[in-house]
């Protein structure tokens, strides 16, 4: 099962560890998906998987992966600059965390939220919802990945948990 999703996908390493996670950034047009990706690439050595169009597929074992259409491989749209070439993964990569960007400020999110999940092709994937008008957005994503590495989302075992929401329809 495959679909083409409007978003940006990255492989993000965690400093001080050997771990790297796949992040799928989603949100309405103009919420800063590519800008967040640019920040993570330049400040955290993340590698681009895909920008604007992400091929999302479900594997036989029930995991979800991101990949890039060949015609835009290695290109990141930087508003006001153009399509900029960046190092990229070049092959499918697991999606470990969905980051949904929403317009607004810090008052839109809880200070200490419970773990939430997004549904991607019927698979529950750990998720963060972050407002676009908040300080250090890229660092908050890294902090979320550290929680993922620490097993934060494994506390929720129920497949019918109400905190699971489908990612925005595009």
Please tell me about this protein's structure.
This protein is mainly beta. The chain has helices at residues 33-44, 137-149; strands at residues 2-13, 20-27, 47-58, 64-67, 75-78, 82-85, 93-94, 97-102, 116-120, 123-131, 164-166. The chain has a single domain, classed as P-loop containing nucleotide triphosphate hydrolases (Rossmann fold), CATH 3.40.50. The strands form 2 sheets. It has a 9-stranded mixed β-sheet, covered by helices on one side. The two termini are 17 Å apart.
Overall tally of domains? 1
Give the rounded overall mean pLDDT.
89
In terms of quaternary structure, the protein is single chain
Query: What is the N-to-C order of secondary-structure elements (H for helix, E for strand)?
Result: EEHEEEEEEEEHE
CATH topology: the name is Rossmann fold
Radius of gyration: 15 Å
Helical residue percent band? 10-25%
Question: Which residues form runs of ≥5 with pLDDT under 50?
Answer: none
CATH class: Alpha Beta
Distance between the termini: 17 Å
Taken from the alpha-carbon principal axes, the silhouette is globular
Structural class determined from secondary elements:
mainly beta
CATH architecture, please? 3-Layer(aba) Sandwich
Main sheet?
9 strands, mixed
Portion in strands: 35-45%
Output the number of helix runs.
2
Relevant terms:
Rossmann fold, mainly beta, 2 helices, two-stranded antiparallel ribbon
What layout of secondary structure does this protein have?
Elements: E1 2-13, E2 20-27, H1 33-44, E3 47-58, E4 64-67, E5 75-78, E6 82-85, E7 93-94, E8 97-102, E9 116-120, E10 123-131, H2 137-149, E11 164-166
Parallel strand pairs: 2-8, 8-10, 9-11
Antiparallel strand pairs: 1-2, 1-3, 3-4, 4-7, 5-6, 9-10
Helix pairs in contact: 1-2
């Amino acid at each position: 099962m495959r679909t083409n999703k409007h978003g940006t996908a990255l492989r993000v390493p965690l400093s001080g560890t050997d771990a790297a996670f796949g992040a799928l950034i989603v949100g309405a047009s103009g919420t800063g998906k590519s800008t967040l990706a640019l920040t993570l690439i330049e400040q955290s050595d993340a590698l681009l998987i895909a920008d604007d169009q992400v091929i999302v597929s479900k594997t036989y074992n029930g995991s979800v992966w991101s990949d890039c259409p060949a015609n835009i491989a290695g290109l990141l749209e930087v508003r006001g600059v153009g399509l900029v070439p960046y190092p990229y993964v070049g092959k499918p990569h697991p999606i470990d965390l969905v980051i949904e960007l929403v317009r607004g400020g810090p008052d839109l999110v809880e200070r200490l939220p419970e773990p939430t999940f997004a549904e991607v092709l019927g698979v529950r994937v750990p998720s963060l919802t972050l407002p676009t008008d908040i300080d250090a957005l890229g660092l908050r994503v890294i902090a979320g990945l550290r929680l993922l590495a620490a097993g934060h989302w494994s506390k929720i075992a129920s497949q019918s948990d109400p905190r699971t929401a489908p990612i925005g329809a595009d």
